[in-house]
Design brief:
globular; 11 strands; mainly beta; 6-stranded antiparallel sheet; 1 helix
């Protein structure tokens, strides 16, 4: 029993000391309907986008079959930083964005007939 309590206390201490590495949700907009963290298309499908500023990774989660989907990232001057086509079939895609400099960026996601936009900020600190 003492060993179990010590193990639990040690685990709690380790978790308390660990620096949280949570990604920031990117609010996405479709036809002026803003939905925080994710957007819904129909009743059973959704897309969410999260940016982790520490590792500079963008995670796109597709909850449904969207087929070929175009992902574009632009800086606010309109320069395309990334333009890629992915097969969005209930998968999570992680895109490394190590070369992004500090500033605000626009994320565009285009599925078969719908387009979505969101903005995220890269901080060098």
């Amino acid at each position: 029993m003492k060993a179990t309590v010590k193990s639990i206390l040690a685990a709690v201490l380790i978790l308390a000391m660990a620096e949280p590495c949570l990604a920031t949700p990117i609010p996405l907009e479709k036809r002026k309907n803003i939905v925080k963290r994710s957007l819904s298309i129909g009743m059973l499908t959704a897309i969410s986008a999260d940016f982790d500023g520490q590792s500079k990774t963008l995670t796109l989660s597709f909850y449904g079959n969207f087929g070929e989907t175009l992902v574009t990232i632009e800086d606010l001057e309109g320069n395309v930083v990334l333009h890629d086509a992915v097969e969005a079939n209930s998968h999570e895609y992680i895109i490394e964005m190590e070369d992004l400099s500090e500033g605000e960026y626009k994320l565009s996601i285009s599925t078969g007939g719908d387009s979505f936009e969101g903005f995220f900020y890269v901080d060098e600190n």
